[in-house]
Write a structure and sequence with these properties.
Elements lengths: L2 E7 L2 E8 L5 E5 L1 H5 L16 E2 L1 H8 L5 H11 L6 H8 L7 E5 L12 E3 L2 H10 L23 E6 L2 E5 L7 E5 L7 H14 L7 E6 L2 E7 L3 E3 L5 E3 L1 E4 H4 L16 H11 L3 H18 L10 E4 L5 E2 L33 H4 L7 H31 L5 H18 L4
Helix pairs in contact: 6-11, 8-9, 9-11, 11-12
Amino acid sequence: MSRILDVYLHEVFAGQLIQNDSGALSFAYDESYVSGNYALLSLSLPLQAEIFEGDVARAFFSGLLPDDIVRHRLARYLGVSEKNPFSLLEAIGGECAGALSLYPQGGMPPEATPDDFEILDDKKLQEILDLLKRRPLLAGDDGLRLSLAGAQDKIAVGLRDDKIALIRGTTPTTHILKPVIEDIKDSVHNELFCMRLAKLVGIDVPASQIRHVNDTPYFLIERYDRVLGDNGTVKRLHQEDFCQALGIMPDVKYEREGGPNFARCQDVLREASAKPAADQIALLERLIFNYLIGNADAHGKNFSLLYKGNKPELAPAYDLLSTAVYPDLSAKMAMKIGGKYKPDDVFLRHWYKLVPDTAAARKNLEKQIEAMAINCRDKAHDLIETLEKENIRSSIFHDICEVINKRANHIGDELL
């Protein structure tokens, strides 16, 4: 017997996710949703009466779930298979990234209850941070049905009187809280530094900060898929990552495994973005920035599209982390630059392969690389001083600066 989840987008019934007896997934838009010309769920799931079967449905809905080890621990806690996205979404799909919600067939999103929250004092927050190691996303907690993609432990929360609060029911959360990653030195300081540096060099990023509970730091970042309405209520914005947009399974998110490469991401923006030219430039800037800071984990799930209207645009940057400062992590980049995975093998001739083969395009690229390299190198050192004034210190800041200096000099041999 088939199992069914009702899928809502912005609290409008959009269709049904169906799992048949063999475990295969399919998705069908509701007829009235199609005839009403509502927003599509994904570029890989355009509005149509025909049913989406096979990999395309599985890829999109699997992309709503955590990755890797977090998904494994979540499945083990819930007592379901980690390879069964339907059962996982049945348990935690009440509030996903963007504006999607999934409920058992016949269930409807309950009315939002803004007063249904729990402010966390230090003791309770510490308990939750410890609990996340055993129960990802706090699965099973009464009133919490939150799903977030990614390979890191995290939880969606809200702020009430500037205090961390667990939000229950269907009221949208506003922030993502990330605890320290075990065995990754000063991970929250690393991410804060890279996010703040990105903002300083002109990259669109959400506001973020480091907070502490019992001297233990955690990273807190605003959700870019949430906005305040005119009456002060929080509204959801729909979003999808590039793997979802291209119908690629999240477990092959790296280019070398079959995930998106830079050219395919640019094609998505060229063909679908509300502002294709600006977004293509912005994506190239992010590729250059990730190269300079040594972020080898900038894969297809770490770039997203945000739907503010009928057509998407490039979402703000997120999950910026210098992996190059950790010798035990792979140096291979998630996406090749001109056919090269290793940063030391990348030269100007490889960057040229990312743009049209014209003198003007190459000249503009050179200017873009040169400006980003100088900007990152100068502002990274200034940022350390700024953070020290905020009483935020870590030796990892200097390690990141060394990576930037090395790579800027590598580029400089040909450009600067």
